Amino acid sequence: MLAPVIQISPLAKIRRHRELPAPGKVVVRQGQKVEALDIIAETILAPEHIMLNIARSLNVTTEKADELIQRAAGETINKGDLIAGPVGLAKRVVRAPRSGRIVVAGDGLVLMQVNSTPYEVHAGMPGAVTDLIPDRGAVVEATGALVQGVWGNAQTEFGLMQVKMKSPDDQLTTDHLDMSQRGSIILGGYCGDGRVFQKAAEIPLRGLILTSMDSALIPFAQKAPFPILVLEGFGFHPLNAISYNVLVTNNGREISLNAEALDHYKGIRPEIVIPLGASREPEDSSLSVEDFAPGHKIHLVRAPHAGKTGTIASLFHEPIRFPSGIRALGADIILSNDQHVTVPLANLERVA
Amino acid sequence: MTSSVVSTDSILAIDIGSITTRVSLFDVVGERYRFIASGSAPTTIAPPFSDIREGIARAIHQLQDITGRVLIGADGALLIPSHPDGTGIDAVAATLSAGPEIKIVAVGLLEDVSLESARNLAATTYAIVTEVVSLNDRRKQDARIDAILRVRPDLVIVAGGIEGGATQSVRKLLEAVGLACFLTPRSQRPQVLFAGNSAIHEEAKESITPIADLHIAPNIRPDIHTEQLTPAQVALSKIFKKARAQQMFGVSDLDQWASGRLMPASTAFGRIVRFLSHIYDPLKGVFGVDVGASSTTIAAALKGKLAMRVFPQLGLGTKLENLLKYISVEQIAYWLADEIPKSSIRDYLYNKAAHPASLPATEEEMALEQALARQIMRAAVAQMMTSLPFEIKGSGGGGLPWLEPILASGRVLSHAPKPGQSLLMLLDGLQPTGITTVILDQNDLLASLGAAAEINPLMVVQVLESHAFLNLGAVIAPVGRARRGTPVIRVQATFEDGSETKTEVKFGAIEVMPLPSGQSAQLHLHPLHRFDVGLGGPGRGGRVRVVGGSLGIIIDARGRPLQLPSDPELRSESLKRWIWALGN
């Protein structure tokens, strides 16, 4: 069975497509070095338009209005610029109510798109632009440690990571947060208290990485003014040993916290990138495609072993019955503590 | 209904689900069409493949390993047609449910007339209406244009104007649609389906065709009282295919293998339900439910008329995180025999959404998954049955009207550990009434057969009659209210060997009378206390012949709507008793 992959690595080559959801302008060039917060591409996602009824405003026929329109489609205009007229004794005119661009002019009407804030796609990690994606974005490549999670509140940040976990099953409370952490990203454990977000915003923190979280806090996490990334899932789960080691080893380093929302169809997972120099270029493990096999390092995603890591000792080639009663293909797993457990293959991710 | 005259066409059905890609082989065995075997593999929409063909190839390779039949040539291409040496297949049927919802803007004149019909049309496929524009939304034209642009739709459905009715107002709405399309980058422009007043067809062509792909369908609201969705559904299927081809690699090839017959799995599912409504009791409707990972589909048909609805918000996979907008944790907990903290139920929903392909490995998670399936079906049925465009007889009493058979599809049902669990989920979730038969799509074939019906209807009939489907049993569900423990129906069964058995079932109980699959029995039903079993009115009984299934004859005397005791201990006790009654 094809093994889904979770990327947890102390050193990896990381390639990420940074693309706009709609066509726009790519503002980087191939080979360019970028920082995490640099803009890769931008577009107007929610354009605002104003329709000016010239015929009615000038009290003339449609044909006459077309004669009086002074601007053509494509022209840039500033607020107050003349659009149509003058006409009549009073020299009536129509002026631009806001700055923008004329998109349609004719039939007695002018449709203008007003200037609005563009939507930006950022590099998300310090690295180099290796490929351009016309009208959409670019591929950014970096070398560093990588830890993926399962949930993010759709925000990204870059900053110094401070580890506030003493063990993989630690919990994060308001007592762990203080003003000395201002501007940093905190790695905490399980969070079951919404006041943690409030205090984090007051300090303010630049981001939060949680092992797991009470799902009741999701609405609050979505409104938090900083990125929040959940590594294992909801309800209390200790952090898997591999991620814990990678993150604790890099305490005090600058990290990219890409708390993107999980998107199964696009293959997007929230993740932490820790830029690291490397004497030898590591391999890009994200592209490897393998069926589950003995020896694979794996991450277990469902009860009763959710959040644990281990190694596949052997695979069952016929479906076996599990305590729930289902029959499914499974594997014998040796957990980090040498315990053997039997798990459905569907509940495993290969650690790459 | 059957015929021994068969052509020799073999069919490979390919179904691309959001989690699993399944290929099923049908061929002639002993003068009749049979389901031979199926292979499956994870669907490969996402990176690193980003191409559905990889999942298809893997599933076919598994099918080849199972059957020993070569379906793919040395060049990696499907062998179509079959060769005299038995390799290859003659035709491909293809269905697709995977992918994000199609984003639709519904445009109509009046909220509760044409706009409602546009919404109903959208609900027949894997779509979500992200914006509505109507005459009475009071926005200026520029605000309407921005509203359409903001949601970046895949499709705009324009309805409005009954035949011989308004044209000027529809023109105004079309103008907004045209401008919104014009202002969208060419590669992102939505498709436009015009299904309004036919007097504007030419103008719609003139104004939209130069800008965007325009599809024209007969008016979905030809008069104020009539809604006619079926012809527009054909156009919608085409649009769905086109939208998916833009979103996913491999869809165009799949459509080509299927000779242009690739269709949404929901459409194919609806087609099979409609097909069966021509065959079964014309006084009853046929009902189908498919609880999938990305959506739930409900279809009901009577004498060839179909009502169908897809609920993309009610899936058992990735949509779970949105599910709580439609059903509550309390409603899920209602179906649990053993108490699970509400916080754990909510956590479970989010964890499952993060790993939609994962399986419940513990008893607790299985109970949760099945409780969820029950509530998903309750929610879907409640929405569907209030808006049926035709009348199906039966009091319902808060449950389904008289429908037979009930077809059930979807992994949570078809792969439940025991048939009794599948049946109990269906009895609780759908709450059928009267006399019916419940058929389980244990090989997940229904949508594939719906797609194959166009190629070979005889094959569909013969496979439906085969053991590819599991008859769970005949269900007798009298409707009425009584005190718990009051006898509400007496049943006397006379079996083929002449033996007889009698039982009296009390309100609140489920009883099972063994009747092996394929054997029939004559039942004499005596409803008590004016309970209605569908034999002519409350309190009226009679004789009826039923065919046994894997669970025999099931008398569900729990009343409709099914009301569980409010006391948690009593509720737990009842739930456990019913699970026990069905052999779990």
Note the beta-strand portion of chain B: 15-25%
How would you describe the shape of chain B?
Answer: globular
- Quaternary structure classification: heterodimer
CATH class of the largest domain in chain A: Alpha Beta
Features:
heterodimer; A: mainly beta; SH3 type barrels; 29 strands; 10% helix; B: alpha/beta; Ubiquitin-like (UB roll); Rossmann fold; 8-stranded mixed beta sheet; 22 strands; 32% helix; disordered N terminus
What can you see in these coordinates?
The complex is a heterodimer of chains A (352) and B (584). With 352 residues, chain A is mainly beta. Chain A folds into three domains: 5-43 and 121-275, Glucose Oxidase, domain 1 (3-Layer(bba) Sandwich); 48-114, OB fold (Dihydrolipoamide Acetyltransferase, E2P) (Beta Barrel); 290-351, SH3 type barrels (Roll). In chain A, 10% of the residues lie in helices and 42% in strands. Chain A has helices at 54-58, 62-68, 195-202, 218-223, 241-249, and strands spanning 5-6, 8-19, 25-26, 33-34, 39-43, 48-53, 76-77, 82-87, 92-95, 100-106, 109-114, 119-122, 127-133, 137-148, 151-152, 155-163, 185-187, 190-191, 207-213, 228-234, 254-259, 271-275, 297-300, 309-315, 320-321, 327-328, 330-335, 340-344, 348-351. In chain A, strand 25 and strand 26 (327-328) form a beta hairpin. Chain B folds into three domains: 11-96, Ubiquitin-like (UB roll); 102-247, Rossmann fold; 267-581, no CATH class. In chain B, the strands form four sheets. In chain B, strands 13-12-11-14-15-16-22-19 form an eight-stranded mixed β-sheet, sandwiched between helices. In chain B, strands 3-2-1-4-10 form a five-stranded mixed β-sheet, with helices on both faces.
